[in-house]
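Q: What would this chain look like folded?
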Amino acid sequence: MPSLVLDNSVAMRWCFKDGSDSDLSYADKVLDRLADTIFLVPNLWHLEAANVIARAQKRQWLTTEQMQQFLDLVLQLPLKVDLETAKKAMAETFNLASVHNLSVYDAAYLELALRHHVPLATLDLDLRKAASNVNVTIFNL
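A: My prediction, written as structure tokens:
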């Protein structure tokens, strides 16, 4: 079964259903791959997603029903959490962040895609540029 690294920028489109038409379409195409793709995520993925949801709920950007629908979806995702992310943080990930002017969080997705030689599903433009610079394929149908 093929794998890809799932950045939270894509998953958040499933939650908020906002952004450009092309971003929403891209996120939907990634979601359509649920049945035949393993989504690799760094071990910070759930914390990052939960933080965004908690902040959105606090600001009343999400109803309780919308939040619960997204949480139910996340529980169904075929996520494979990478347990090596923390071990890579102070070397490979930090270096990728420095060289490509990324947050260390974003660089964790890039490092994971590099290490596993799999495409990266992201809507983050800086992360896409960095991926291109290190020959990581951006998921596209």
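The two ends are 16 Å apart (CA to CA).
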